[in-house]
Design goal:
This protein is of the alpha/beta class. The protein has two domains: about 140 residues, Rossmann fold (3-Layer(aba) Sandwich), CATH 3.40.50.1360; about 70 residues, Alpha-Beta Plaits, CATH 3.30.70.260. It has a six-stranded mixed β-sheet with strand order 2-1-3-6-12-13. Strand 12 and strand 13 form a beta hairpin. The longest helix has 17 residues. Bound molecules: ribulose-5-phosphate. The site of ribulose-5-phosphate (5RP) has 17 residues, from helix 3 and helix 5. The site of ribulose-5-phosphate has 17 residues, from helix 3 and helix 5.
Length: about 230
């Protein structure tokens, strides 16, 4: 058990990773998110498994998280074998006080949303730099589209006065493919709020998934220099 004093020696991302790992108990199947905060959670979970002989299984939202979990000694099962998921733990790019999330800066959002939506509890781990007043404040909204639908979806979003473009790879010399083999549009919507954007994107043909996670989080752990605060679903 991490004490408050231990917690004050950790950086905010470590604090929230450690809090979430404490929720795990033997017998659980635990979903692993993707990103630097999810990585810290994987390390903490593996430490608890080793030191407290926890009997747990994990499922990963990305290749990188699967490899990291295996290297850390966690027992990874494929998504195909999941009958249920006790908890899913992941970071986020933006969070509002009403627990709307923006995710998908990486390229694994389809699997992240799949696991988050099937988990009994979805724990979100962020530091206070991720808190925003409105979704889209700091980041464009990532939208995964079927590869041959990118231009048609862009045309459709332009009618909603959305601005943005196709995501390129790190070298900038080719398009970026998501883990699911799709293309990604990074879009800004000036006239619509997150609830309107969520509703529109969810029914637009050609869109496979998008980065707004609405009504999904169970608890958001927010780490800061003064400790961890919790936002809880009502
Ligand atoms: C990846 C994500 C990540 O959870 C999000 O980008 C946060 O990353 P980090 O923990 O590195 O700040 O949504 O698709």
């Amino acid at each position: 058990m991490t004490t408050q004093q231990d917690e004050m020696t950790m950086n905010p991302k470590q604090q929230v990773a450690s809090r979430a790992a404490e929720i795990a108990t033997s017998g659980m199947i635990i979903g692993l998110g993707t990103g630097s905060t999810a990585n810290l959670f994987i390390d903490e979970l593996a430490r608890r498994q080793r030191e407290q002989q926890l009997d747990i299984q994990v499922v990963a939202s990305s290749v990188i998280s699967r490899v990291k979990a295996q290297q850390a000694g966690l027992r990874v099962i494929p998504i195909e074998q999941l009958s249920h998921l006790d908890m899913y733990v992941d970071g986020a790019d933006e969070v509002t006080t009403s627990m709307l999330l923006l995710k998908g800066r990486g390229q694994d959002l389809v699997c992240e949303k799949l696991l988050a939506s099937h988990a009994t509890a979805f724990y979100v781990l962020v530091d206070d730099s991720k808190m925003v007043e409105r979704i889209g404040e700091k980041h464009a909204i990532p939208i995964e589209v079927m590869p041959n639908a990118a231009q048609l979806v862009l045309n459709c979003l332009a009618k909603l006065r959305a601005k943005g473009s196709l995501r390129l790879n790190a070298a900038g010399d080719n398009v970026a493919y998501s883990a699911a083999g799709n293309l990604i549009l990074d879009m800004q919507f000036e006239d619509l709020d997150a609830a309107q954007i969520n509703a529109l994107l969810t029914v637009t043909p050609g869109i496979v998934e998008h980065g707004i996670f609405a009504d999904m989080a169970t608890v958001v752990f927010v780490g800061s220099a003064s400790g961890v605060k919790l936002l809880e679903a009502k």
